[in-house]
Amino acid sequence: MSKTMDKKLQTYMRDMAINNMPFGREWYSSAKNLEDALRARGIKLPQKLYYEYKMPGELQPGEFMDNLIMDYFVSYFHNWFAKDVLKDKNLTVVQKAKIFTYVWKTRGKYKDRLKKYEMEIRKLNPELARVVVDDSRSLVYGAMFGFAPQEIAYFSDGAHRDLVKEQENLKIFKSYGLDVTYILAPKNAEALITALKQNELNKVKDR
Questions:
Q1: C-alpha distance from residue 114 to each of 74, 92, 136 (Å)
Q2: Beta-bridge mates of residue 147
Q3: For residues 14 and 168, what is the distance between their CA atoms, to the nearest angstrom?
Q4: CA 45, CA 189: separation in Å to the nearest integer?
Q5: How many contiguous H segments (helices) and E segments (strands) does the chain have?
Q6: Exposed/middle/buried for 143, CB within 10 Å: 0-12, 13-18, 19+?
Q7: Burial environment of residue 179 by CB neighbours within 10 A (0 to 12, 13 to 18, 19 or more)
Q8: Which alpha helices (H) appear in 21-177, and where do they start and end?
Q9: Contacts of 42 by beta carbon, 8 Å cutoff, 6+ apart
Q10: pTM (2 d.p.)
Q11: How many whole angstroms separate alpha carbon 43 and alpha carbon 173?
Q12: pLDDT tens-digit profile of 58-109?
């Protein structure tokens, strides 16, 4: 953090980032939640959905997420935060200038740091070594939340995603009482649907 940034502004930026993060204030994994729900039903899939990857610095995922908060603020500043900062009457002109200066000076450092995290995560987790992604963020965040390698690669490849099929699958999952809150790769989604159907057939046989 820049020496010109006092603790008040640091807290201000962190709070703004945390309140806007799509995954909330506390770490959790949609993949882990799904695996736990399936396990509770006695459903086993041929492959894991949740991976406990090793994080840089031997940090736990929640601790590592905390390190990314300011990077998140910088990354999405011009998309979401800049207008709110400019309109905030509780900030002085000088404070606003400090925030904009901080973002301008650290943008390049953020990208370099994210790339460094990506390389460290690939090295620590062989299953991610050859996963192809469009940007470092996809792999870093995907690993942090424990998504399977297939999910990380599929979600990153926006040009080849089947959005219609994804929505259809989510509806199918919901019809079986599962609230799946992330996107599964096609083969994993197919395997899950097959397992859910088989589970229902087993219930009928046991009656």
A1: 12, 31, 6
A2: 50
A3: 37
A4: 10
A5: 10, 0
A6: buried
A7: exposed
A8: 30-40, 61-67, 69-75, 82-87, 93-124, 136-144, 149-156, 163-175
A9: 199
A10: 0.81
A11: 14
A12: 999 988 988 888 888 888 898 889 999 999 999 999 999 999 999 998 888 8
Please, which contacts does 86-92 make with residues 24 or more away whose CB atoms are closer than 8 Å? 91/12
Residues 74 and 103 sit within 8 Å (Cβ to Cβ) = yes
What is the C-alpha to C-alpha distance for residues 203 and 207, in angstroms, rounded to an integer?
7
Cα(44)–Cα(146) distance, integer angstroms: 18
The string over 66-94, giving b where at least 16 C-beta atoms fall within 10 Å of a residue's C-beta and e elsewhere, is: eebbbbbbbbebeeebeeebeeeeebeee
Q: Tell me the sheet residues that pair with 50.
A: 147
